[in-house]
Amino acid sequence: MESTKVLDAKGLACPMPIVKTKKAMNELEPGQVLEIHATDKGAKNDFAAWAKSGGHELLHTEEGDVLKFWIKKG
Questions:
Q1: Helix (H) or strand (E) segment spanning residue 8
Q2: Strands (E), 25-65
Q3: Judging by beta carbons within 10 Å of its beta carbon (0-12, 13-18, 19+), is residue 29 exposed, middle or buried?
Q4: CB neighbours (10 Å) of residue 6?
Q5: Whether 21 contacts 47, CB under 8 Å
Q6: What mean pLDDT comes out for the span 1-13?
Q7: How far apart are CA 51 and CA 43, in angstroms?
Q8: In the prediction, which pLDDT does 1 show?
Q9: pLDDT band with cut points at 50, 70 and 90 for residue 50
Q10: What is the mean pLDDT of the chain?
Q11: Residues 35 and 6: beta-carbon distance below 8 Å
Q12: Fewer Cβ in 10 A, N or C end of the chain?
C-alpha cells in the first residue's frame, strides 16, 4: 500500500504512538496516507478508535512482530 509518510513508533508505549501519529497527521493534506509502524499490541484498538474519532479512515492493518497501519487523512 502506498503512503505519503512513514512514522516509526516501534518500542513506544501508549499513548505515545497516538501522540506521534496526531502530530504527523497535522503535517499531511486531506487524502494523504500515513503509514505507522508500532510494537505496542494495544495500538490496534487505539488507532481504530482514534482514526474514527478524528474523521480519518483506517485503510489497512498488518499484524506481525511489527504492527503496520495505514490511515488516510480525512
A1: strand 5-9
A2: 33-38, 57-62
A3: exposed
A4: 13
A5: yes
A6: 96
A7: 12
A8: 84
A9: very high
A10: 96
A11: yes
A12: N
Q: Which residues are catalytic?
A: 14
Grade residue 34 by pLDDT with cuts at 50, 70 and 90: very high
Amino acid at 8: D
Q: Evaluate whether 16 touches 46 at the Cβ level (below 8 Å).
A: no
In the beta sheet, which residues pair with residue 6? 35
**SS3 label, residue 62:** strand
Report, as an integer, the average pLDDT of 12-40.
97
The CA distance from 72 to 64, in Å, is 21
- Which residues lie below 8 Å from residue 30, measured CB to CB, with a gap of 6+? 73, 74
Element holding 69 (H helix, E strand): strand 67-72
